[in-house]
Amino acid sequence: MRESLPGLLVAVPLAGAALVPLIGALFRRGARETALVLHAGVFAIALALFALVQDGAPIAYAMGGWPGPWGIELRLDGLSALMALLTAGMACFAAPLDLSGRRSGAAGGRTSPFGDSLLRGVLLLLLAGLLGIVATRDLFNLFVFMEISSLAAYTLIAAGGGKATIAAFRYLLAGTAAGSLYLFGVGFLYALTGTLNMDDLPVQLAAAAPGAALATGVTLIAIGLSIKAALFPLHGWLPDVYVFAPTATTGFIAAVMAKVSAYALLRLLGETLFGVEAGAFVLDVLLWLGIGGVLVGGALAIAQTDVARMLAWSSISAMGTILIAVAVGSELAVTAALFHVVAHALAKGCFFFAAGALAGGLGLSRVQSWAGLASRLPGTAVAVTVAAFSLIGLPPVAGFFSKYLLLAATWNAGGAAGAAAFAALIASSLLAAVYLFRVLEAVWFRSPAQGSLLAEAPRTGPERLRLPRPLVFAVGALAALTLAGGLFAAAVERRLPRWPLPEPVGAASDLSRLDSARQEGAGTPGRRVLR
Amino acid sequence: MNRHASSWWIRGVFVTGLIFVALLEAAAFLIAHEHHGGFWNAIPMWDLVFGFGGAAVLYLAAKRALGPLLSRPEAPMRRSRGGRA
Amino acid sequence: MTDPVSLRPFAALLPGIVAALPILLCRRRPNLREGVTFLAGAVQLAAAVSMLPATLDGAAVTTPEIALLPGVALQFRADALGLLFLILSSVLWLATSAYSVGYMRSLKYGHQTGYFAAFAVAAASAAGIALAANLVTFLICYEILTVSTWPLVLHLRKPRVLASGRAYLAYTLFAGQLLLGAVVWTAALAPGAGFTPGGFLAGSASDGALRVLFVLFLVGVGAKAAVFPLHGWLPAAMVAPTPVSALLHAVAVVKAGAFGMLRITGWVFGPDLMWALDLALPLALLAGGTILFASLRAMTEDHLKRRLAYSTVSQLSYIVLGGAIGSPLALAGAAFHIAAHGFLKITLFFCAGSVYAATGKDRISQLGGLGRIMPITFAAFAVGALGMAGFPFLPGFLSKWNLGLGGMDSGQHWVAALLATSGALNLAYYFPVLKTAVFEGSPAPRLPYGRTIVRAEELPPRPRLIEPTPWLWAPPVFAAAAALVLGLFPDFGPGFWSLAEAAAASVTDGARDLTALYRGGPSR
Amino acid sequence: MTPSWEFLIYHPGAYLIAGGLWAGLFPSYAWATSGVFSFGAAAVFVLRRLPNLDFTASVADFHLIWYRGDALSVLFTVVFTVVAGLGLIYGWYRMRRGEAAAAMIYAGCAIATVLAGDWVTFFVFWEGMAIASTALIWLGGTEQSRRAGMRYLLFHAVGGALLFVGILLHLAGGGPIEVAALTGTGPPFWLILTAVAVNAAIPPLHAWLTDAYPEASTAGSVFLSAFTTKTAVYALLRIFPGAEVLVPLGIVMTLYGVVFAILENDVRRLLGYHIVSQVGYMVTGVGLGTPLALAGAAAHAYSHILYKALLFMGAGALIEATGFRRLSDLGGVWRRMRFMTAMYLVGAVSISGWPLFNGFVSKSLIVSAAAEAHAPWTELLLTLAAVGTFLSVGLKLPWFAFFGADRGVAVRKLPSNIPIAMGIAGFLCFAYGVLPFMLYRMLPWEIDYRPFTFDHLSSSLQLLVGTGFLFFLVVRKLTPAEKRTLDVDWLWRGPLRGAVSDAGRALRGLAPAAQEARRWVVTGIDAGLRRAAAGRAAPVAPAALNFRDSIGWTIFFAAAAAAILLVILDRA
Predict the structure, then answer these.
(1) Is residue A6 part of a domain?
(2) CB contact under 8 A, C424 and D158
(3) Contact D526/A at CB under 8 A
(4) Is D248 on the interface with B (CB under 8 A)?
(5) Per residue in C219-264, pLDDT tens?
(6) pLDDT tens for residues D239-261?
(7) How many structural domains comprise chain A?
(8) Alpha-carbon Rg of chain A, whole angstroms?
(9) Domain for residue A105, yes or no?
(10) Beta-carbon separation of C393 and D169 below 8 A
(11) How many domains, chain B?
(12) Are A396 and A359 in contact (CB under 8 A)?
């Protein structure tokens, strides 16, 4: 059972993706419930895996019974189990929602050409793709899952109709470019080493002479994944997608999708290819790009008047933050990155669900239109406040602790790049404070404009404003988790995997140990000497 | 009322003072001898002269030297002469 | 003496946080709601006082460490300086709560539930700042304080108020983030970053790096301490209701900054390192400049609360100044000034608020004659004003005296001159208030032409008193009386002076019996 | 010596301060009662000749010598108590309770200052005097009094600040805590001397006096005339005996005062200049430093308090009765207030040093001390000042106020407490004048001095008569003009005040700029970013890709990065 869990983790949603539309088509109802059960099941599997890998031993599943390096291996170690858990968990919040939700920018009235059950199947497909990326140990298989998840995502986004369709199309362009670049890169590596297995690749690379082909492969892989991770300046697809996609989709993909790509970057560059000179070089470049992303994302978020667009730019900033930590690559930095991934996913998911609910359901998309929210939807206001605190990094919520760890990690990294990253992280908090406190000010202290929805709606009685119950649950639960993540930061931190990861079982790799600085610094906060 | 009272006063004081001073000087000339301090104390009638001269010096210093220099009109709103006849 | 480990500090921290929820729930029962506030304040005070004996014995009640992150722990310790601040803020929280009842209700302000809830959280976070045993704990409480006072500043929700709220946040969040950076840096230099009397940073990094670190700290806590040029938020924050200005912007928030400054100079860097790094004198000069600047600036303000705010800017720099100089007497004076200024300034703010609540007047030029119809209020105001000027045997005198002597101990003779100048300037901007309020304002008698003297019987009759409800005049009277007692018997009650002395002695190794030289009585 | 609070029983100042607080706190009718009780109690302990003991008490951890009853402090305590009683009688109907309270506290603080044994106590009550007297001035009730009171307060605040720094320096330098003669002439010496000089109204630090004293109420200025300057004289006697710098300062004071008095029109301002002048004698005496000179300074302070109070009472009575305060408005009222005129003249002849009045027996001590100290020029100049004193206070003021041309000023009847107080004061001036040993035996210095030698009498009389001749010669020229005399207070009423308020205004002027900068930072970033982002972050346009478009940029960057990296790596 234990050994088959990684397989189930991917297979269940994949099968569900087919099953749910089928049920929808056959029975007209029950599709939603089935999807929910499946999501819960996937979450349970992820949870079980997460619990099981806490002892440090990864759980591997050889697809088709072919062991690595020839077969495709799905393997869950602490890091991937965490990502899987996060992904599956966020999907659970998105699953009960209306996936064809209208956004204010969407052309009115027209329902999605797809049936509801089909979209639910696509969500499961997206989940399967993301979980596959997380679980696989095969470079090409990773591409396959990446494409699965991308295609599913395009569909879900396009379901918003209107401008969402255009946004999805443009995302498709960028995503296809990304996939192609990635695939080229993998091709180079494969040509060089003859292997696609992430454990075998370093061994082979150690034997291969470094050269242009290797560097090209690494670079193309990095660029491809950077586009997927919306790393500045390759972030162009992101804002429109986050703004126009349906609420549930936005909440889900904003929380995890880019992060899964960042995970892949960490896996490939930080682990598999780290011993390669080009890999280390690319990480250094990523660090500076991360700094740029943090600042540009934060600054442009300030420039927005639309809540969702502001949050989208904030996400670009957050991805920069995560990539900084990935690029620093010390134990502490990766712990910080993971903490930030969790904290940001919870808070951003919460915020996007709330923003989507208000914008899509009530047409409150601009910051100023949220004025007086606290008097009509106090619960939502509290949740948004908690999420905003986390995004800024104020105690006592989760974001503060991830910010603290990030700062400590960048500080320990030393060097000009470390100092610049340190300063950029502080600046990003300040920028976030500017745009998020503007929202909070409107929510709590401004009066709704005369004649606006919030001004007209009664405070009590059956006519009072209410959000759909699943949304309330998602927003509330995520806010609660954000708060809990801060109050029990030590417990969260303890469960985060340590970096570098324990020796993979059955792998002959010694390349993941090449970083001497990391070995010296084992046990204490790591210090990668940055150029 | 009697706007010319001052001349009467002055005359009276002058006459009385002159008599008094004459007596005083006579007595001082005859009796006083325990002078100390500056040489000027040996000068006869010095104190009288000094009283007159000193007062003159002060008067001149104040009214002639400092007065024009330092006197300024009061605030115009605070004039009061003739307010109560 | 080893520090007793106990959970008791939490008893001083939690009441405010725990009370916030019942306060919110008792929205419809205002009396019950305020009862909760008083109960929480009483519990906090009782807990604080219960830790006093151990602290005065030289041991500090300490909580176990609560790990937050690797190398980052939440820990509280009731040492002398912290307890001084804690008891001060507890006592004044109770007083301000009573005052808030009178003020908010008599002015019929809205959002009172949120007001009291935020107040409770702010009081708790001030307590947390007081008891923080390490920099991270300090930082966390510091940020919570920022956030919890923000709604209080914005209470009136007018456009101008919102703008002030933004300025408030701009300063305090900016400072908070720099402080975060400084804390992370410090924790990297010295794991744990626990406050250590005499400092722990010596030799941990190059001089240049430590100087940069200090500048980060200076901005981080200096903004809350309203050190020039980071003081701008304080006058702007006067748009808050007066009790907020009174407790938070005279005691809790700004004191958190000044207190933090003492912690940084005395417990993180340490006076020796401060002097060795050539930081002490620039900081002292900065504080001195702030004192003079704010005093001059206060004179130009007609708005009473803004004048008080500039006075706060000036007075807080006394504490910074003492911390910068770092000699035993200067530190003791600075620590004592936390309490002294707390009682005095809250008196003044209470009075300003009472006047506003009773008459709607908030400008000094409008106060004419109010002293005669609000004698209690203005008597309290006079005590506060005199105390601020350092009038002998009001508490401000003791702090100034020791600051001056401490300055001379360190060869900084200009400190005494500065304090004296500041005292004179204090008179210059406080006494016009009394002059206007108490000695003028009744319509001047019409004198016969040419007459310039007012005869007794021509003076206008005494108007009817309009002292407001006891909720509004009792707190200032209490605070003024407390200030008087504190001035005459600085060790009365909780022993603020002993605590200040103990705090200073701990930082400076108790190198010198503080009282022996100058207050030992006749030398024969 | 164990600290105790027992001293409160013996401390006359404590009674007056307590009475003042009581009077201030409780309804109006209480002030008279509390005044009687507090003054009575104070007087009892003065009459019991004050135990020559030290009392200490511990306040705020300072171990203070609250009470040091040696001969010098007792001398001043006695006269302060007496004048406080006289002032209370004089102000009985005039003073309202606030004024009475301030006056009692003021007197109590003055007494406590001279009884203070240590620097801290001394400083406490020194400051207390400044505050209480400010209140007393403010209670004059006019706009002028409020403005003058504020200037007065600030001036004394500066003085207090100097004293504070001086004391701190003195103590930090290891000086004893007791108030005693300072040894050495370092910074503490000069700081404390300057602070005392402020209170002693030594030019150019004197103008607060002539500025503020005339603006108090008539009763208030009686109190004011007695305490502040004489406490400073006490301080000089205690701290700076024999400080040579005081001799020229004192001489300048004496002449400065009389010269300005000759010009002055306002009755009480004229008398104020004579405080400056008379205190100059005492300052000179302190500076001469011989026992005779010191004794003379102490004795002259004693006498001065009495006759100056009498003069201010007379001036006050004149003002109360007529409503006018300037000589140019007055004249010829003596027929309608004969007793008051007589009593004023008693004060005038006392200050002028007429034989048989107390000024004669004390002023001559100082002049003789100067002669004995072989300081003939000092003697001469002091004598010159005496001439001027008689000229202005003894002749000019009564001539133009009481005598001279009758302007028909209406005089209203004054309540009987005023003549009673003046009568007592006049009697005391006369009594000490004829029985000088009553004064001499209280002095802390043993002196053997006989004022009533023929030589002394004759020279004094000649002097006065000579002055009288001149006065009547130039009497018409002396007619006071309706003018105001500029004094050094012009400096801080004009340029200095302007400088301070300009500085404040300049700083305030920075505020909008600072606010603008803040706004620029806070909202300018906001607006700037919006502008900058207007194109870049615009919502999706349904058009095809182009390079103005974010997706276009993404693909461009990706391609460019790939190309650049490939080129670099290819070279490598």
Answers:
(1) no
(2) yes
(3) yes
(4) no
(5) 999 888 888 888 888 888 888 888 888 887 778 888 999 999 999 9
(6) 999 888 999 999 999 999 999 98
(7) 1
(8) 22
(9) no
(10) no
(11) 2
(12) no
